[in-house]
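Lecture notes, part 5. Sequence design as translation. It can be helpful to think of inverse folding as translation between two languages: the language of shapes and the language of residues. The source text, in structure tokens, appears below.
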């Protein structure tokens, strides 16, 4: 049986921009993408801590070391620059594999600086 598990989370990132005219997605600094173990075009859920909005989209790159988190397309109406968000990725994992896998949690400090990276056992 396949069970959905959290595999990656970026916790308390600040939205740095919104682009309603873009086709859609969330642009994330390439370094943050790598540290979180995300892949380009991977589906993610975004939870807006500031207003409670929740939506799904996919990851695209933003310039490395820019510390950018930019929400694009229709989802840009659900956030404002400065809002705090959680970006979460899930995977369907066979229950036989669960004990051998880890989730990556990236905690962000103000200015979208990576504060701490934790790997937690599923």
């Amino acid at each position: 049986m396949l069970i959905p598990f959290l595999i990656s989370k970026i916790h308390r990132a600040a939205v740095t921009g919104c682009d309603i005219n873009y086709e859609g997605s969330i642009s994330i600094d390439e370094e943050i993408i790598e540290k979180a173990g995300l892949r380009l075009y991977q589906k993610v859920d975004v939870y807006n801590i500031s207003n409670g909005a929740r939506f799904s989209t996919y990851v695209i790159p933003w310039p490395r070391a820019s510390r950018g988190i930019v929400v694009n397309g229709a989802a840009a109406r659900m956030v404002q620059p400065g809002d705090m968000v959680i970006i979460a990725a899930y995977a369907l994992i066979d229950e036989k594999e669960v004990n051998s896998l880890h989730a990556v949690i990236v905690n962000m400090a103000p200015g979208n600086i990576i504060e701490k990276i934790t790997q937690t056992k599923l």
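The translated text above is only one of many valid answers, since several sequences can fold into similar shapes. The CA atoms of residues 8 and 104 lie 5 Å apart.
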